[in-house]
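QUALITY CONTROL LOG
STEP: pairwise intake check
CHECKER ROLE: data steward
CRITERIA: each record must contain a sequence immediately followed by its structure tokens, with no blank fields

ENTRY 1 OF 2
RESULT FIELD BELOW
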Amino acid sequence: MKCIKALILTTILSFLLFPISGIASSLEKLPSLESSNQWEVIIDMPKSEELEPKPEVYNIYSMDVTYIGDEDIKLDRVEVYRDDPSTSYDIELFTATGDGDLVIEKNSEQPSIGHQNFPISTKATELKVIITWKSESDGSRKYKEEFTFKQ
């Protein structure tokens, strides 16, 4: 009986001292959502298996950006950056541009921009999504919003 108690106690202590982690340095909860009055950005598991994660090197995620604002707009661009702890600047992962032709109607329920899979270094601690758009009624002025996800 003492042996069983010791085994159970050892097992519990090992889980507390050495937690099991699926992917090191990954976003804590997926899907991860950040939103504002204009935009909803979701970072989630990859939607394609074209690229496999390499533990200790990079993890793979997908991203959907949906416009939830209340006016018609023209999406100019979505830029995604990650930080690098060894530098003072951010590194671009990808940029999606609408080339001024991507008109998004208010209350559209489909993602404005989606990316199936992209790698993020396990050394990165932040993922920044920068969205730039123009109002359909005032096409001369650009607007920008930035979302930051912690890894």
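ENTRY 2 OF 2
RESULT FIELD BELOW
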Amino acid sequence: MYFNCKRIAVVVGLFAFIKSGDAQEQLGKESMPVNDIEMIVQPNKCVALTQGRRCYAQVNITWQSEIPTTVCLIESNTSLKLNCWEQKRQGQFTYEMASAEDVTLSLMPLGSSPAEEPLVITSATIEVSWLYEGSARKRRWRLF
């Protein structure tokens, strides 16, 4: 009986290891080259004067990769392609932001479509905040 419990524990432990992402990553590392892409978005915050107003900013996006890569920069909120690079190790783009909501920028492979099943390599979000909450009342000038 002691032998069977030990065998069950080993089988359960092995099954848990195989189901975990660590084992799948170890197996995948041998067959696929690793391509870490780093994307930097500056500034990553935008401040509007009042709530609900658009925030305007000039955002600099830079990315670099270990191996030449074909990617496109996508504004995820609108699925708009901002720029594409073919077989490049690095890229730079200046984005003229005008939004009242947070904007997410993503790097995707050139052939993928954001409307179907997006394959996002990396992404960054530009947060929009405001100084004053929007007021529903109107301010009128009165002399008396």
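INTAKE CHECK: passed for both entries
DESCRIPTIVE NOTE, ENTRY 2: The longest strand covers residues 55-75.
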